């Protein structure tokens, strides 16, 4: 599967919004988006460029896809599942993305970014309800208990992440227990729990063409 290996900061600049893809660095004065808040490339600083409706929709889809670290194929699969579910398609899509295990670890504060969460999962550092789960796309459910494996509790980067999570806060639908290096899914997320500026209706319109 194709994987983006370029600069993460370049993606933020292209979407004209901080996606917080590099953890604590995004909060520091080293953030490339703060230094160069314009799209990358030789034409990045051109002004007054008119963007079509399709262009606006495409950029919104690309932004959300990059925010959650998905490939085009993965994102399309999530959209098709959301479309088949009852309710508002756009809301279903975002809630499913929030329920991904790699995102939940990031939201709980066990990692500085979703890409770091995926790395932890592929190395089998976490248990869900006492069982090893190494699938980043695993959909969590209310009541699920997520904990760090005993042999992984000496990883300093995770402890540092838990100390730094206060900066961005932990959503109400999740609970983090720092003393036991575990957390619990208290409820399903709602649209109101997703505070990142996203216009999901533009994505629905794009895929409806």
Overall description:
The protein folds into 2 domains: 8-40 and 51-97 and 197-207, Ribosomal protein S4/S9, N-terminal domain (Ribosomal Protein S4 Delta 41, Chain A, domain 1), CATH 1.10.1050; 100-188, Roll (Structural Genomics Hypothetical 15.5 Kd Protein In mrcA-pckA Intergenic Region, Chain A). The protein is built from 9 helices and 5 strands; from the N terminus they run αααααααβββαββα. It is an alpha+beta fold and 209 residues long. Strand 4 and strand 5 form a beta hairpin. It has helices at residues 8-15, 32-35, 53-67, 72-84, 89-98, 101-108, 114-122, 156-164, 200-207; strands at 126-128, 131-132, 145-148, 174-177, 182-185. The longest helix has 15 residues, at 53-67. Strands 2-1-3-5-4 form a 5-stranded antiparallel β-sheet, covered by helices on one side.
Give keywords.
209 residues; alpha+beta; Ribosomal Protein S4 Delta 41, Chain A, domain 1; Structural Genomics Hypothetical 15.5 Kd Protein In mrcA-pckA Intergenic Region, Chain A; 40% helix; 8% strand
Described by the principal axes of the CA atoms, the overall outline is: globular
Average pLDDT number: 84
Look up the CATH topology of the largest domain: Ribosomal Protein S4 Delta 41, Chain A, domain 1
Distance between the termini: 26 Å
The stretches of 5 or more residues where confidence is low (pLDDT under 50) are: none
In summary, what is this structure?
The protein has helices spanning 8-15, 32-35, 53-67, 72-84, 89-98, 101-108, 114-122, 156-164, 200-207, and strands spanning 126-128, 131-132, 145-148, 174-177, 182-185.
